[in-house]
Each structure stands twice: as C-alpha cells, then as structure tokens.
Write a sequence for this structure.
C-alpha cells in the first residue's frame, strides 16, 4: 500500500485529500506514479501537469526520478505561502 | 524551539523565556512577527485560513532552525507558526534569534523567516469581498 | 516613538501597543533587544553604567527614526534606550520597525540600531573583577 | 558666555563635567577654542589632542572650522558606545 496526499488548492481541484492504494503495476518512481494518476481523467491530467507542484515522499521534497516503494507516503502540493 | 499551533502566542512571553534561557550569553535578540494585513494584492482581507502538512511542517521547521544554528553562533532560536482561521492584525508567525553578536542575530532571524516562507508546507487561503482565493506562491 | 529612561521596558507591551497603532497596516514587525552580556573582551562583567548627553540624545534618536521613515515605508518605529546602572542580562535597548513588507522592516530595524550605535551619545562603563573601564568606541 | 561640557572618560580625565566662561579673546571657532583650552596645562593638552574626540555645538556634531559664538553650548566626547 502507498499513502497519497494532496494539499491546498490541489486538494480542492481533485476533490481528494488522502487516499491509500496498492502500488500500481509499472509504477517505480514519482514520474511513473504521476502518469498513472493522470490517466484517471482530464481533471487529474491537467492538475498534475502543473510544473510548479512539489512532491514529497515521507515528508521530504523529492524529484521525478525518486523511487516510490511500498509503504511510502507521497504528497503533492502547490508552492508554499506561509509566514 | 519550534511550535505549530492554532492558538495565539505572546511575543513578550517568548522573548522573556528566551532571555532566561540565555542568561547573559546573548547580547542581541532579533525577532520577527508576521501579522495578517487587511489588504493583499489590492483586495480587502476579511479572514484567512492557514493549512499545513502536519508532520512535514514540524520537520521542515526543525531543519531550518538547525541550519541557522550551524551557520551562525546562536544562543537560542525560536519558530512559532499558527494554523487555522485568522483575521486581520492577528499574529501568524514569530521567529527569533539570540546571539552574542548583533550581525549574527539579524542574519539568522532573516534566514529563519525567509527559508520558512520558501520551504515550510503552509498555504494561505483568503476570504475577500469577491470570494475565497488561495494565495499564489512562487 | 523614542524614549530614554533609567527604568526597564517591556518588549511584549511595546510590540502589543505597536500592533494596536498599526491595526492591519503592518504585515511585518522586526525588533531588536540589546542585553548586557556577562562577558566582554574576555572579562567578566559585574555591572555597567550608561552615561548619555541629555537633550542631544533625544535629538539624535528622533533624527535616526525620521531618517528610517524617509528611507523605508514604515507603519511604525520605536527606539527605547536605558541609561544608568545595569547588570548582566538586563535590557539596554529596544528598537522596532513595522512595515507592510518584510524586507523593509528588516532593513529599517537594522538601520535604527546600527546608526544609534555610531551616532547617539551614549557611553558604557563596565565594572569587571579587574576594576572599572570605559568601553572603547571606534 | 559659552557653556562647555565634557563626557565619559574625557570628563573623568579632565575632572570637569561642565563649565561656563566668557568667550576668550581670539577664539572664533572650534579649533581656536581647543587651542585655548590646551594652554591650560598638560592634562588638557594631551586629552584634547585625541583625534577620536567628537565636538558638538548646541547638540549637533561639528568640525574644527565651525564658528563658536557667544551663548553656544560646546561639548567634547569620546566615540559613542551605546546600543
């Protein structure tokens, strides 16, 4: 199982905050996970195409070629605006 | 010392506790308080909601504090950030750096807040007369 | 707002009054507190005496505040400096700058304290185990 | 009459904090007033030779060629060390 999380405007666009799923066939890294999620439909395709999105695995920011493993928590979020 | 909380904080009390912890070792204490403005990008702000990524936030703030302590000679450092609903003039964030030296305290305090603003997973959503909008980050 | 006084001041109360005066116009408040260190130039400090030039001091501080307000967009500025006898960990000086913008608040706060240290007529005399000495300025 | 003031270590060296005197004959500016004071003796001569001293007239810092007039308050002090 992997845990997926979406924050802020992205969460509202997708209508999902959290989900758990079995690591899909053929998904080995962030880039392939993104492609798999984008195949869900146009909303997902468009939202996850935004190049400003950040991805974190287990709460550390990572890059598209970072491996995704069973048990990981993978989160997507827009640029931060705290402070 | 880092904290993420919905309730307000008291800068005076935080500065007094910091002074007790430093006890003569710090000649310079620089602090930053961020407040909710009543205007942003030309629009009146009625209220604001601060969302964050629990767990990752605390880790990011602890890392930022640690980096500041490695780069400058600090007697103490504080980061406190609020989450949840806020209204204009409410306190959002407090950061402080105490050092034997003024220059180090200024540089470290500025580093803490600048880095928080680019790396800590907080997101602001504003309610204006025209509706609700997410503040756009860079 | 400038003040020269022998009694202590309360940074929390000053910051709270500043926030009331700004009422939504200031997003960023940067403040500096100077404390008496227990060591200076390698010697233990037992106590310190701060002398000043009454009249000229107030004028110098008012000029410095005015310069900062001309150079940066400030919603408020404070300089408070103590005189008379002080001991380690006592507060000596408080300066604060409030602005809509973080960068302006940092630059103005640093300007206030840096300029005060080179232009305002205060002199420190320290009591150490080896005797009494005037702190040497540049 | 002019009012003279000495601060901090200079006050202690000279043993005087304040004095009033008639504007001396031949004194027209800060430099000539300093020369006149230095003629009081070695302690005055040495102390007022310190090039790091600041001079203020009527509470504004001035230079050696600034005129001194009847009624002025003239102050000497070492480099400041507040803050």
């Amino acid at each position: 199982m992997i845990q997926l999380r979406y924050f802020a405007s992205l969460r509202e666009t997708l209508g999902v905050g959290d989900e758990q799923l079995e690591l899909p066939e053929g998904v080995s890294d962030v880039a392939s996970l993104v492609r798999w999620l984008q195949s869900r439909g146009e909303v997902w395709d468009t939202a996850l195409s935004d190049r400003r999105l950040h991805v974190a695995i287990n709460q550390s920011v990572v890059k598209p070629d970072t491996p995704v493993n069973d048990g990981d928590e993978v989160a997507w979020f827009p640029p931060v605006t705290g402070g | 010392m880092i904290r993420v909380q919905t309730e307000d904080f008291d800068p005076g009390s935080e500065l007094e506790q910091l002074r007790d912890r430093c006890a003569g070792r710090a000649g310079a204490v620089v602090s930053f308080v961020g407040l909710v403005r009543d205007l942003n990008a030309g629009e009146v702000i009625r209220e604001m909601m601060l969302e964050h990524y629990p767990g990752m936030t605390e880790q990011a703030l602890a890392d930022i504090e640690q980096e500041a302590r490695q780069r400058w000679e600090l007697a103490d450092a504080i980061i406190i950030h609020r989450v949840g609903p806020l209204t204009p003039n409410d306190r959002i964030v407090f950061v402080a750096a105490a050092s034997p030296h003024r220059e180090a305290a200024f540089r470290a305090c500025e580093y803490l807040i600048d880095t928080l603003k680019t790396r800590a997973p907080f997101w602001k959503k504003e309610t204006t007369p025209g509706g609700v909008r997410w503040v756009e980050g860079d």
About this structure: Chain D has a mean pLDDT of 97. Chain D has one domain: 2-77.
